[in-house]
Amino acid sequence: MVRGDVADDALARSVLGDIKPKVLILNAGAKPDTGLIHEQSWAGFTRTWDGDVKAGFHWLQYALKVPLPAGSRVLLGSSGAAVGGSPLSGGYAGAKRMLWLMAQYANVSAQELGLEIHFQAILPQQIIGETELGRAAAEAYAKRKGVTAEQFLAGFGKPMSALQVGEHVISILTDPKYAAGTAFGLKGDTGITALDG
Questions:
Q1: Vertex 174 angle, CA 188 and 83, to 5°
Q2: What is the CATH number of the domain that holds 134?
Q3: Is residue 10 assigned to a domain?
Q4: Who contacts 91 (Cβ-Cβ below 8 Å, separation ≥6)?
Q5: Which of 27, 149, 169, 176 could form a disulfide with 142 if both were Cys (CB 3.0 to 4.6 A apart)?
Q6: Number of domains present in the structure of the chain
Q7: CB atoms inside a 10 Å sphere around CB 140
């Protein structure tokens, strides 16, 4: 086990240089402050940029620079907020959209460098109410709408558990039909959906 700050470029360089994994899943994330934009501080608004995006930047760079072995896959945890926004989460939606774009950019770099490494973004398209972060988000949005968290979560359709998210990730990594895409949405009702234009 390796401990460290996921946003530290030295950690990314060291871990990828020592281990050279064929599968790298980047899903660490900072908890965003909750509030409308006029209620946010700059530090809170940019927390996900300083955590999620900075970490993604360093790990993607070293996946390309080390490089990872031919045939490697790198998955970045993004969010459905990257598509529809998240007005109570500061810079969260923009940070998650940037991670999706960074997967595209890394694929361009891999092609330019002649590396057989494929980068993909995973976007859960609903709040996962059973997680601490998901529950806090659901409660904040429910309060603004004057409904219960359960009523708010029901608006997404069939719930999706953290376990189901993990099962979808395994499918993306093992089912050949997901080998070529760059972005995949995950939803309780529809399962895995390609988001590439």
A1: 40
A2: 3.40.50.720
A3: no
A4: 32, 45, 46, 47, 48, 49
A5: 149
A6: 1
A7: 16
Q: How far is residue 184's CA from residue 21's CA, in Å, rounded to a whole number? A: 22
d(CA 161, CA 186): 11
Per-residue model confidence as pLDDT tens for the chain (197 residues): 889 999 999 999 999 999 999 999 999 889 999 999 999 999 999 999 999 999 999 999 999 999 999 999 999 999 999 999 999 999 999 999 999 999 999 999 999 999 999 999 999 999 999 999 999 999 999 999 999 999 999 999 999 999 999 999 999 999 999 999 999 999 999 999 999 97
For residue 6, give the DSSP letter. Answer: T
Q: Which residue has the tokens 């909750």?
A: 34
d(CA 96, CA 111): 23
Measured over the CA atoms of residue 147, residue 151, residue 155 and residue 160, the dihedral's sign is positive
CA distance 190 to 56: 27
For residues 27 and 167, give the distance between their C-alpha atoms in angstroms, rounded to a whole number. 15
pTM of the model: 0.95
Determine the Cα–Cα distance for residues 161 and 68; give it in Å rounded to an integer.
Answer: 31
Q: Is residue 129 part of a domain?
A: yes
Tell me which residue has tokens 């109570």. Answer: 88
Helix (H, G, I), strand (E, B) or coil at 117: strand
The answer to whether residue 14 is domain-embedded is: no
Give me the residues paired with residue 187 across strands: 191
Residue 124: inside a domain, yes or no?
yes
Which residues fall within 8 angstroms of residue 177, CB to CB, at 6 or more apart? none
